[in-house]
Design goal:
The chain is α/β, with parallel strands linked by helices. The protein folds into 2 domains: 256 residues, von Willebrand factor, type A domain (Rossmann fold, 3-Layer(aba) Sandwich); 46 residues, no CATH class. The chain is built from 10 helices and 10 strands. α4 runs antiparallel to α5 and α6 packs parallel to α7.
Length: 327
């Protein structure tokens, strides 16, 4: 990938979202095709019955039931005890995972900036709808490599999430980071999967440009390797236009004889970008994305791909809505 001088990094919540997008997000909600049991009263309709103001049904009285829920009018008419059931509204767990590895810093705007803005938008929607929101970041060049923001709830948590994402973008190399941790993306996904609080939605934002496959990490998200199911997961692969087609880079730097340096390992390779080489690269890049899409769908995980220069407001309000993540 080509590193270019990008836009200034956000320093505040307003830099991440902007007032116009925030106002539009106030009218949206997170959406899941699965039914989960929350931990706290919230604003989401549940299949469970419990305490609320919305009547749902009756059932026979069982000794030990709360007498406050007995329908005394029915008792007077039928001489039989019935308990009133009410529809219980519950919260939902929403977790965002952001890949902060070196490869995510390419592009203008960078893939990392795009990912953090989308993560902030999803977290914002979850918080304004009284859901529990947590965040995990993978910063292999930092210490620790995997960072986690504990679950927060309500509008008061919005700036906490914003600060977490801003700190992810500004992470500095830490002391004592083992080289082996640099490419252990699968382990980071497993940590995120096992550190969740409650069942719910997981949104993973990454370029997924890691050695080998991401199957072990995807298994963890699907619960097949951890035994902990419960996520309705969406993986969003963030790429730059130049990664899809090196000849599309507007700087013109990726042409002719070039030296490519791996942002993660520092290894370099010299080559000539001939039409044949570019065509082969594009074929392999699309093959990688197709494999990732197939691996996700085979595990019941939704998959989306986004260019880093896509306007965030359009991606959130259009693509995420049509993709079934927001409504």
């Amino acid at each position: 990938m080509l590193h270019v001088a990008g836009s200034p990094r956000p320093q505040t919540l307003e830099d991440l979202l902007g007032k116009d997008l925030a106002a539009r997000l106030d009218r949206m909600d997170v959406l899941t095709s699965k039914m989960f049991a929350g931990k706290l009263p919230g604003e989401r309709r549940s299949k469970r019955r419990g305490r609320s103001v919305e009547f749902d049904d009756f059932r026979d009285y069982i000794p030990g039931d709360d007498l406050r829920h007995v329908d005394w009018n029915v008792l007077a008419r039928l001489d039989k005890l019935f308990i009133k059931l009410f529809r219980e509204d519950e919260d939902l767990s929403v977790q965002v995972f952001v890949d902060g590895s070196r490869s995510m810093e390419s592009g203008d705007p960078s893939k990392l900036l795009f990912a953090c803005r989308v993560a902030m938008a999803v977290a914002y929607v979850g918080l304004v709808n009284q859901n529990r929101v947590s965040a995990v970041s993978y910063v292999p060049h930092g210490s620790p490599a995997v960072r986690r923001l504990a679950a927060t709830r309500g509008r008061a948590g919005i700036r906490r999430v914003a600060r977490f994402l801003i700190d992810t973008m500004n992470a500095k190399p830490g002391d004592g980071v083992e080289p082996a941790s640099v490419t252990d993306f699968n382990a980071a996904l497993r940590i995120a999967a096992t550190s969740r609080t409650g069942r719910g939605i997981m949104v993973v934002l990454s370029d997924f440009l890691v050695p080998g496959e991401c199957s072990r990490g995807l298994d963890a998200l699907a619960g097949s390797s951890t035994g902990i199911a419960g996520f309705d997961t969406t993986c969003i692969q963030v790429v730059t236009p130049a990664e899809r087609d090196p000849r599309s880079d507007r700087t013109g730097a990726l042409a002719g004889d070039v030296r490519l340096i791996d942002a993660e390992t520092g290894r370099s390779v010299d080559l000539t970008l001939s039409p044949t080489v570019v065509a082969k690269y594009k074929e392999r890049f699309e093959s990688h994305s197709s494999l990732l899409r197939a691996q996700c769908r085979g595990r019941g995980i939704s998959f989306l791909r986004a260019d880093s220069d896509t306007p965030v407001d359009r991606f959130v309000t259009d693509t995420l809505r049509s993709g079934g993540l927001l409504r």
